Structure formats: structure tokens, C-alpha cells
Amino acid sequence: xxxxxxxxxxxxxxxxxxxxxxxxxxxxxxxxxxxxxxxxxxxxxxxxxxxxxxxxxxxxxxxxxxxxxxxxxxxxxxxxxxxxxxxxxxxxxxxxxxxxxxxxxxxxxxxxxxxxxxxxxxxxxxxxxxxxxxxxxxxxxxxxxxxxxxxxxxxxxxxxxxxxxxxxxxxxxxxxxxxxxxxxxxxxxxxxxxxxxxxxxxxxxxxxxxxxxxxxxxxxxxxxxxxxxxxxxxxxxxxxxxxxxxxxxxxxxxxxxxxxxxxxxxxxxxxxxxxxxxxxxxxxxxxxxxxxxxx
DNA sequence: TTGCAGGGGTCAA
DNA sequence: TTGACCCCTGCA
Length: 295
Prior knowledge:
Layout: E1 2-3, E2 6-10, E3 14-17, H1 25-29, E4 37-39, E5 45-49, E6 52-59, E7 62-66, H2 70-80, H3 87-94, H4 98-106, H5 117-126, H6 132-146, E8 149-152, E9 155-158, H7 163-167, H8 171-174, H9 182-195, H10 208-215, H11 223-232, H12 244-255, H13 261-272, H14 276-289
Antiparallel strand pairs: 1-2, 2-3, 3-7, 4-5, 5-6, 6-7, 8-9
The protein binds a DNA duplex through helix 5, helix 6, helix 9, helix 11 and helix 12.
């Protein structure tokens, strides 16, 4: 079967997608955009997206997605893995200097996932002054507590909950996820979304500054978290989430001096334009994996 | 063994 | 503009 130029072969345990370019599960799942893809011993990744628990393996240019059908590829994986985007073109346009060239070569298999926006919101509220392994643990516990049980491959997984489940809980129960002071933000944010104070699915119809401002109405959401939510949910791509790692790499490689958050944002907007989000992801992964500027 | 710094930022003063 | 913040790991 064919879909949008991809050849899909159905197997008994899943599907094979041939000739997938510009994709490497290590780069895509460990570049910091997501928290629920777990590396397995054989190098493949287990993950839960919507109500599906799957394993993704990549060999040569062949992508194997377990527990999936041709229809799942059309309805879910093609969008989620951003397989409709021409990353050759994006890379060519971003190779403006030696720094970007190095960063792109290093993370050549990064694709920006189109993740559920509520899951992205909660995950990045958890990210404030926190560490990645702990964020992953908290997201997992929240899913166990409030999500739906899914059985796949003889194991049990949990979907990320919806807004009703989260808004309907109480602080004491939520604190089981060990999110600390962020738990109250999660609960209040979920309540605001449920009431309709902030319409997550309406953000795509706003311009980027408006969408950002709208998200920042939510507790625990500042400029960095707002940009992450917009970028990693596939809502806006002209944002440049600036955390400590991006700040370090920009200071060390571009500015050669201490630089304010505002100045970095303005530079990124001018220099990378509508592709700023892709540039940020290559730079972040490059900086963090190589500990650029780390003490 | 104990103590302390510090981490994908945000909030409040 | 600055310090506090849950929690917990790493390191002295």
C-alpha cells in the first residue's frame, strides 16, 4: 500500500514504512521534546501516543511500528512523526553558518513530533527547575494514576489522561507524581483549560505572540514553557524556546558574551525566521549532548 | 554517614 | 531584579 509517497507493508505485528529519510529515533526521541519514549535494550523505543502503545524500530531506512495498521499510519503516525515535511529543505535553509552545520550534522535525524497539546502543557509545566529523568517519571505516574490502561505485547501501558481526569482530581492525589510545587500549577492549569479560560485548540488560529500570551495566562507557564508547548505540539514553528542550554550555546558560539533572553529571542527571530523552532531543536540537542557551556 | 548544591523556569515581592 | 521553590541525585 502507498500513502503520500511512503510504501507501507502490513505485517502480523505491525507495519513497515520504507524509505524514511531524515529520521533517527535516538535523535527524535532524545532531543528533549518528549518524555514518554523509552529506549529498549535492542535500541528500539516503546511509547504511548493517544490510546496506542507501540514499539518503534529503525533499520537502514525502514521504520517498523508495532501494533499498528495501515489506517493507523494514515490517521496517526504520518502526522505525529511529521513525515510529510521536507527536512532536506529545512536543513538546507538552516545551514547558514558553521555552527548550524555542525548542529544539524549532529542531530540529523531529529523530527519535530506533533504531540498532544495537553500532554505537552503538563509535561513542560513539570520541566521548570527540574531534571529530565524526573520529568519522565512524573509524567509516567500521572498517566498511571489518571490515564486508561492499555495492553500491548504482553505488557501494560497507560495513556496520558484528558483534561476531565486531571481537572477532576485533588492536589493530594496529584502530588503522588512527585512534581512538588508544580503540582498546584498542573491542577489549576487543567481547571482553566476545562472551564475554557484558555482554548488550547484555538491557539493555531492566533498569531504567535497572541498564542504565547494566551498560554501564559496559565499558572506555571512562562515564556519558555509557552514556546515549548507551541513548538512540540506542532502548533507554531516560529518560536525559539530559550532555556539554559540554548542560552549557553548561543552565548558561547554566536555572541561570545553574556546575552539577555530578549536579545537571543530577537536574534533567533531575525536570523532563523519561520524555521526558528527547528533551529532551536538542533542547537539544544547539540549543546546538551556535548555539554556546551556546562560547568 | 551526613550535608549540600543544583536542576528544561516561574512566581511574588 | 532577586530569592524561594518540591524533590532527589550526585558528590564531597
